[in-house]
Amino acid sequence: MTSRLNPYLNFRDSTREAMTFYQEVFGGELTVNSYGDFGMTESPDELHKVMHAQLETPAGFVLMCADVPNAMPLPEGSSISISLSGDDTDELRGYWEKLSEGGTVRQPLMEAPWGDSFGECTDRFGVMWLVNIAGAA
Fold first, then answer.
1. pTM higher than the cut 0.70
2. Whole-number CA gyration radius for the chain
3. I want to staple 130 with a disulfide (CB 3.0 to 4.6 A). Which of 49, 68, 83, 108 is the partner?
4. pLDDT of residue 79
5. In terms of residue numbers, what domain contains 94?
6. Domain tally for the chain?
7. Do the domain assignments include residue 2?
8. 103 phi, psi to nearest 5 deg
9. What is the pLDDT of residues 17-63, one digit of tens each?
10. Are residues 127 and 88 both part of a single domain?
């Protein structure tokens, strides 16, 4: 098996909603397993929480995510962002439009000084996305 590096996001209770959203953005196959599915909690209010979710997209992206149990602290102040880049303008603009809808745009997707189109947004789940569309050669 080839080694891969995959973003793994953590939420308190919104993993299922977030991953369904990302599936709408990127397409692909979503697998979701709860703590209850694996008998990993005795707390009735955590049986439905997502222990592991994985989205594999037609473009070859893999995004993973979990709900952090109530007994564990939720990491705060993350300095992580996810970057999407390439030369398929329509595909990347489509991702941008969906990811930024309901979120906060820090840098509108527009031509950058280096000749590419670039934008930065935080989606409605608090995840920062950078989108870079290659300019003409």
1. yes
2. 17
3. 83
4. 65
5. 81-133
6. 2
7. no
8. -110, -155
9. 999 999 999 999 999 999 989 888 888 889 999 999 999 999 999 99
10. yes
